[in-house]
Write a structure and sequence with these properties.
- There is one protein chain.
- With 254 residues, this protein is an alpha/beta fold.
- It has one domain: Rossmann fold, CATH 3.40.50.300.
- The protein has seven helices and ten strands.
- 39% of the residues are buried.
Amino acid sequence: MTSVIAEGVEIDRVSKHYATLPVLDSVSLRIRAGEFVSVLGASGCGKSTLLRLIAGLDTDYSGEIRVAGERVRDTSLQRGIVFQDHRLFPWLTAAQNVMAALRNAPLSLAGKRRAVAEHIALVGLEGFENAYPHELSGGMAQRVAIARGLVNRPRVLLLDEPFGALDAQTRGRLQNELQRIWQHERITMVLVTHDVDEAIYLGDRVVTMAPRPGRIERIADVNLPRPRERTDPRYVALRDELLAGFGQSPTVQP
């Protein structure tokens, strides 16, 4: 598997309205190539809308979004996206679902099959290539969705609360899996989440958004070694600091 060149993302004074309702208000952010950024906020703060704009799924906004210095005007194979709902085609197997993402890829059939096999292996699903979505657990289905998001070798992967519907144990396993994939691929990743712990565990930086309209409230560097220990006092202190910003009680230590 050849290496992928990560790209940076520049968000410059982006505002978005739905009818007369302001959703985003002059959001500006620079994401470095190869960085893992967590965008954290409560429901309704516009974080998923921002991700859709970066993906090119919605171009009706003011301001500018650039990837690798070029303005985002449409969707692109260079920007993959994974949603909370895995959105697999129920009539296709795991491998066929990943293959579907390569429909417009400039690869031969043999090249596409190799890419599918490599990415099924990357997410740890060897042996389940021929399983249909209803035969997979929720966590396994999300692994297929991640493989599908990565199979075109995008330079930026966008993750819209990909583990939000999973139980805590499965969520923890997939957080570790996503971290491993990021360290292997070294592409730029942008994760949208409402989970403070998840944001800190995975991100190089945590961008906190305030709602109505959505705007960046603060940006926190996560200067902790990987793999991270959730019991590390520095980790706990940052988590408590971010929770306090949401008006939640800090962690109680025994």
